[in-house]
Amino acid sequence: MNDYLDLAGQLVMVRLFGTELDAETDAFLRTYRIRGACLFRQNMRDAPQLTRFTGALRDAIGPQALIALDQEGGAVVRSTWVPAPPSAMALGAANDPNLAGDVGAAVARAVRSLGFNWNFAPVLDLNNNPRNPVIAERSFGADPGQATRIALAWMEGSEREGVACCVKHFPGHGDTHVDSHRDLPYVDKSRAELEQFEFAPFRIAAPHAPAMMTAHIVYPALDPVNPATMSHAILTGVLREQFGYDGVIITDGMDMHAIAHRYGVGQAAVNALVAGADMVMAIGTRATQIETVQAIAAAIRDGVLPLAAVQARLARLGKLADAHPAGAVAYVAEQDDRALMARAWRAGLTALRSPQRPERGARVRVVARADVVSDGVSEAGVPAASIAAALSQLYDVDLVTFADSETFDWRALPADGRFTILASTSRRRYGPQACATWRPDLHLALWNPYQALDFPGPALLTYGFAPPALAAAVAWLAGEIDAPGVCPVPGFDGP
After folding, report:
1. Which residue among the candidates 102, 175, 223, 252 is catalytic per the annotation?
2. Which end of the chain has less Cβ packing within 10 Å, N or C?
């Protein structure tokens, strides 16, 4: 069984706990010959700690280690101290492939300096659903040609700097009403509709993408029973055979509720590999990680996962690792990259419905959420006090916060002549009570651009809340810059 365990572990990526590689985890990685590790915000304190951690991981896993993170840009970043990249939709609004390529290269330089060789980005989901709870500004837009052109430029920039990309979430998460972290979504479109829209970016990217991540979504027109992650018809039939894709296929996190609440972790992992995946992302507990490896080993032993198929998967993973070796390199362009990111955020800044700037020194009321908690996918948003402090550079600011937009009494805001700015700092859309009872003078949509559709008044879209995004909004308010971006999804081109 040990030989089968050795093979199985090389098909698994795990989540780790803590900020250092402790002896027990080191032994686990070596014993089961785990090939990959994905790190999250809770694994990171600062550059010296993180570089030490990834170095220890490479030593434990070996020279073909795959050390990954989600550094998409915008709200989905794990290393928050490096130059802050714009979200995909900000780059889509700028619509400049050269700029996108430079941003992708800068992201890669930053994460490679920390020891990573695999970035789970860019997102190729086309977002035409204003109520999508998890994609929104993570998408480059809704037009397949434009969005894919920007995404591929970003990916090429990353490749230049030696970091593998992983496009996601095949075959498309953009038109869902459900977050697969919480439940199992369905996209009930015809095969023709999927071919025209969802499939298009992945088909275009297939000759170029070193890796693709699967979606935990059921597409009844393709497979009425299995989510894409566990569907032979989708992973092998569509992606491998129809698209001719020969790169690495990795699952999304198998601890997500769409999978974990419906299937046993071991069986789900085996199902995904049999369907055509090369690597399973086992980011649950240590017990479920061991259960995953053991189930895969048993499947290899029993011929459910034939040895030839295992060797083909190992070859693809080895090729990816050899082309993108792990190990930290010096980050000599950090200051230049910070300037680049600031320029990129400004390029995407978008004005909606002819917003007006208050005069410098005006009396302004800023209204914002009291909390900025993470939604489990993204990092926490910018605190209301930080927004007020930034705008205080220009105005006499009165800050009002609310806990819940639907129970907050918007009519109770004083009618004292202050110019009122709503600063939206979460991905959550506004409900009917807020939308029907109030209208700000200016809406700063500092995260989800679709929130600007909840109120009929003028808005400024930044597509993210990172410090350079807020700085771009302040520069616009000061009259120092224009807002040249064009929102790349439907619904933002009318009055």
Report:
1. 252
2. C
Which residues does residue 419 pair with via DSSP β-bridges, in sequence order? 364
303 in Cβ contact with 86 (< 8 Å): no
Q: Tell me: the pLDDT tens digits for 363-379?
A: 999 999 998 877 677 88
In the block, residue with structure tokens 């009396």 = 363
The answer to whether the CB of 134 falls within 8 A of the CB of 377 is yes
23-32 and 286-301 helices, crossing angle to 10°: 10
Who has greater pLDDT, 73 or 178? 73
Q: What angle do CA 2, 4, 10 make, to 5 degrees?
A: 105
Closest to 489 measured CA to CA, from 457, 448, 434: 448
Is residue 156 a contact partner of residue 210, using CB atoms and an 8 Å limit? no
pTM of the model: 0.95
| Whether 69 contacts 111, CB under 8 Å | yes
Q: Is 252 labeled as catalytic in the residue annotation?
A: yes
Among the listed residues 13, 106, 133, the one whose alpha carbon sits nearest the alpha carbon of residue 61: 13
Count helices and strands in the chain by DSSP H and E runs = 17, 15
* Residues in a beta bridge with 12: 280
Categorize the per-residue pLDDT at 178 as very low, low, confident or very high, splitting at 50, 70 and 90: very low
C-alpha to C-alpha distance for 28 and 346, rounded to whole angstroms: 46
Structure tokens at 62: 């070996």
**What DSSP assignment string belongs to 66-95?**
EEEE---BTTB-S--SS--PPPHHHHHHHT
Owner of token pair 């918007």: 410
CA dist 293 → 13, 190, 284 (Å):
10, 36, 12
Helix (H, G, I), strand (E, B), or coil: what is residue 281?
strand
Q: Are 44 and 16 in contact (CB under 8 A)?
A: no
Question: Tens digits of per-residue pLDDT, 208-242?
Answer: 999 999 998 899 999 999 999 999 999 999 999 99
Q: Per-residue b/e over 247-257, b at no fewer than 16 CB within 10 Å? A: bbbbbbbbbbe
Give the closest residue to 79 by CA, choosing from 38, 111, 112.
111
71, 119 contact by CB (below 8 A): yes
Determine contact, residues 457/442, Cβ cutoff 8 Å: yes
Beta strands in 106-202 (DSSP E): 118-119, 164-165, 167-170
Radius of gyration (C-alpha) of the chain in whole angstroms: 23
